[in-house]
Amino acid sequence: MSLCEDSVREQLKKVIDPELFVNIVDLGLIYDVNFETLEDESTKVLIDMTLTSPACPAGPQLIGNSKQVVAQLEGVSDVEVKIVMDPPWTPDKMTEDAKDQLGIF
Question: Helix-strand-coil percent breakdown of the chain, rounded to 5?
């Protein structure tokens, strides 16, 4: 599988929010995925993500887990996760699957 935004997002589905028990992609926490080719031809993955609230206690865990799973992808030498609060997260960003899991209609 070649390195692309879809493969990174698929890998990020392994990261589960410990409070909501839904993966961070379906929750709509991943805003942007970009790639930077480094001098040694390896790839740095740059991820912009948000949290369900600015005071989310799981933030550091979600960042760490995101870096860990994306770093497992072939060709990835570095992962940078940036927390962005603009635009703020709302339940509208969730997939239908996530809404179903949480009973949001």
Answer: 30, 25, 45
Residue 32 included in any domain: yes
The total number of structural domains in the chain stands at 1
| Matching residue, tokens 């995101």 | 66
Which CATH number characterizes residue 68's domain? Answer: 3.30.300.130
Give the confidence band of 104 by pLDDT, cuts at 50, 70, 90.
Answer: confident
Amino acid at 59: G
CB 23 within 8 A of CB 47: no
**CA distance to 3, 6, 20, 97, per residue, from 75 (Å):** 7, 15, 31, 30
**How far is CA 30 from each of CA 38, 39, 41, 42, rounded to the nearest angstrom?**
23, 27, 25, 23
Q: Do the domain assignments include residue 103?
A: no
**Domain assignment present for 51:** yes
pTM above 0.85, yes or no: yes
Judge whether 99 lies within some domain.
no
Q: Report residue 79 as tokens.
A: 């992962």
